[in-house]
């Protein structure tokens, strides 16, 4: 037997009551959104004949996600982070702010306050094991003019997929640096090739993804913020080509323009030129920043994030996604 009650006057009135429409206090936008959200879920329960067992299993799953601070992991997994990027792309297109390197999701593991350098920085502490990476690029505007002094913030995982600050085995700010581009807009970083990683087996996010027949793996990637006065702040990542998950990222961060090869170099002259000990992988990522006159678009940091003085948030984030 299928029962449908959503469209009855009683239920329609009830959703309005739930959303506080008959109360003068509160926040009008919250009321509108909760009215829509609860109404849509009521209708879903009706349409799919959701059983009480299914409903309470869902509540338990939400509790598990919350208690393990995994909504920040489920969010990219269910495409919300990418959807927000798609919306921002459309907003930019509408405002004729076209061109520039594509944005993609930030993930939850940026940490402010990384050491700063001019032109060149070594990202790894010398104790970090991994294949040497030489990461270079030039920051330009959409006309191809180099942007001297552009701020390039880079962070990535180690070869086990862990991030400093969240992985207590790593030194402070390991694999995190801010490099100001030189007079020709160029930046250079010495580091190690990061590893991809996955959602922890059995974690609530893993349960959700498995129920969809999906995996929770990410390819090896490197996060960037790039900014300069008069230009749009860019949040992006590069995915290393050749990873099994380069085009199958559970977080939907891959964009064709952001897939870059890591070229193995074993020419002794090239090794000597960089004062390295042996063969290395060369990764090149040039960045184009779109221009803007709007100051508020130069820095867009909506996501709460860990800072060196924000241990509570850091401990909440620790143990969650390495996105
Ligand atoms: Fe990441």
TrEMBL record:
Catalytically driven reaction(s): catechol + O2 = cis,cis-muconate + 2 H(+)
Pfam family for this entry, one: Dioxygenase_N
Organism: marine sediment metagenome
EC nos: 1.13.11.1
Domain Intradiol ring-cleavage dioxygenases: 135-163
Biological processes, Gene Ontology terms: beta-ketoadipate pathway; catechol-containing compound catabolic process
Root EC class: oxidoreductase
Transmembrane segments: none
Region Disordered, annotated ranges: 302-323
Known pathway: Aromatic compound metabolism; beta-ketoadipate pathway; 5-oxo-4,5-dihydro-2-furylacetate from catechol: step 1/3
Requisite cofactors: Fe(3+)
Similarity-based family: Belongs to the intradiol ring-cleavage dioxygenase family.
Stored PANTHER family: DIOXYGENASE, PUTATIVE (AFU_ORTHOLOGUE AFUA_2G02910)-RELATED (PTHR33711), INTRADIOL RING-CLEAVAGE DIOXYGENASES DOMAIN-CONTAINING PROTEIN-RELATED (PTHR33711:SF7)
Record-given protein name: catechol 1,2-dioxygenase
Lineage: unclassified sequences, metagenomes, ecological metagenomes
Keywords assigned by UniProt, alphabetized: Aromatic hydrocarbons catabolism, Dioxygenase, Iron, Metal-binding, Oxidoreductase
